[in-house]
Structure formats: C-alpha cells, structure tokens
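Project outcomes to date are best conveyed with an example. Our students and postdoctoral researchers have been running inverse folding experiments weekly, and each run begins with a structure described purely in tokens. The record below, which covers 163 residues, was selected by the lab manager from last quarter's runs and is presented without edits.
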C-alpha cells in the first residue's frame, strides 16, 4: 500500500447521501454508491499543484498553494494519518495514539506530548489548515507506514457540520 492524499467535496457527499443513499458499517465507515473522495499517491500529487483539485460532480475547485504542496510532499512520507476537520486536525501515530489539534489557537509543543513533531511541522499543519475550507472539503493523509488504513468515521445522523 502507498500513502495517499484523500480529497473530497463535502457538498457532493451530502447530495450523494440524499439522492443515492449510503451505508455505515459497524466501524463507522460511510460509503455511497458513487465515489465522493479521490486518492492521490506521491506520484500523482504534482498534477494537483498545476491543475488544482476539481470536484468531478459540481466543478468546485480547491486551489493548491505552495504551502499545501510542501506539506503533502513532506507528510506523505511520515508515520501519521492526518485529517483536517472543521474545528480540529486529527493526527494518529504509529502507536495508535490520537491527537486533536484545535485549529483556532496557537500551540505549545507540550500540548502534543508523544507526537514528536518539530515546532515548524506544527506551524506547517496550522498554516495548511488555514488554506483548506474544511466545511467544503475533506482532506486527509492516509499513511502507508501505519498498520491500519485511515477512514473518516461517521454516525448515522451525521450532519454536514459534523463531518
């Protein structure tokens, strides 16, 4: 398995859920009959920098900044799943520890005991979080260096703001 950047349009996910339905398995993984997220490996991501990501259903575009590109290039090689959610960044390390970083405050390194990120890496995460409108986009890294794949979990009554 290769590490992947996963991107999706939340608006189209919500429309797909309403129009074609969805299932949630016992682990909380939501599936729709049509794909609403798209995965890019390290060899694929360079096209995003030049062409950006465009949702194939609604044509909304996520512009890739140089900071986003540097982040993806660097963090695809690390041993973390990283998910940029609406109010926080979720990081799961190789010890199956989960860290929730609030997006609306500056961090003190001690807040991330056990994560072992350098201060510039934390700064990079927060800067990229500002570039991604998490109310419109799903954006996460599924690291091949960890034992299990990463999926964003859902609840049956998940509302758009909860994704």
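After processing, the design step wrote out the following sequence:
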């Amino acid at each position: 398995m290769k590490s992947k950047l996963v991107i999706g349009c939340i608006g189209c996910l919500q429309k797909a859920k309403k129009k074609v339905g969805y299932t949630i398995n016992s682990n909380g993984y939501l599936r729709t009959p049509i794909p609403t997220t798209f995965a890019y490996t390290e060899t694929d991501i360079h096209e995003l920098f030049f062409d950006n990501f465009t949702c194939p259903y609604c044509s909304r575009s996520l512009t890739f900044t140089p900071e986003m590109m540097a982040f993806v290039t660097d963090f695809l090689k690390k041993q973390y799943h990283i998910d940029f959610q609406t109010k926080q960044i979720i990081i799961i390390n190789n010890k199956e520890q989960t860290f929730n970083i609030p997006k609306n405050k500056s961090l003190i390194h001690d807040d991330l005991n056990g994560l072992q990120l350098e201060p510039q890496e934390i700064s990079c995460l927060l800067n990229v979080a500002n570039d991604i409108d998490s109310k419109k986009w799903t954006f996460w890294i599924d690291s091949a260096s960890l034992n299990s794949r990463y999926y964003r979990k859902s609840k049956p009554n998940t509302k758009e703001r909860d994704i």
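The helical segments are 10-20, 46-51, 66-75, 119-131. The mean pLDDT is 83. The training component of this project remains on track.
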